[in-house]
Amino acid sequence: MKDVTPAIRAGFLIPLAVCAGLQVLLLFVLGGRGFAWTFQSPLSAATMGAGYCGGLAMLVASLRLRRWVDVRVAYLSTLALMVLMLLVTLRYAGRTHLGGGDIVAFGNAWGWLIVHLLAPVAGAILLALQVRAPGQNPRREFPRLWLTVLPVAVVALIGTGVGLFALLFPATAADRWPWPVSELDVSALGVWALVFGIGSILAIREGDPDRQRAGAINYLVAGAAGVIGLLRYPGEVRWDSTLSWVYLILMILLALTGAVGWLLAGPAERWRSPALAD
């Protein structure tokens, strides 16, 4: 069985977990104050922060797992997030604080850019080394029950659809969004939606619930944090819009799907034992 290499943990998972923790503070806790750009609504910051809450939980869980097959969906999803967010940042660089402004936001903007420049390169190199590491990843046949596959497939469909729409047609998406957003805001949120879609597709491909533990934690935490963010800023939402209620329901269902996925995942011995710590 191929285990996660120490380089994957030290060079990618740990640094990005630290960065995700910082984004949780800036976005979810502080409502976007001091972030790399200024949001039109603190709800957008909190919603994006909810994604980082889930991402942080997923990365921490991945650090505790020893088998590469249990980590690779989380790894590939995180790598996709870094690449897509870099493209959005470069596209809207003039709307960020890279050119100046508040010293804290200016520093965070450059830190944000540097991390998103370095992470894809390091992630690709470490992935190539991981694939070449000794060991096998035997696929265990697991009966696919439609009751367990359907919710993940729905997340894949909605996440991919919303994400592509927001990235390809940001102006139209911003006009229809259920709270005030800029094109940069909606593009960044679209990246998160698309990454959830990509991760869900990869999870369906894996098939084995044991390999989806980290992703299930992501669903659970991100969905719960999304609901909290919405309830924290109710005045920002156009409640007369059907999309507002659809979003709330989807976040609740995302959290419930994560909880079920957690229950279906393998037993505690799937986690790394202290003896296996690097």
From TrEMBL:
It comes from the Bacteria. The keyword ATP-binding does not apply. The chain crosses the membrane at residues 12-31, 43-61, 73-93, 113-133, 145-166, 186-204, 216-233, 245-265. Keywords: Membrane, Transmembrane, Transmembrane helix. The keyword Membrane applies. This is Uncharacterized protein. It comes from Actinoplanes oblitus.
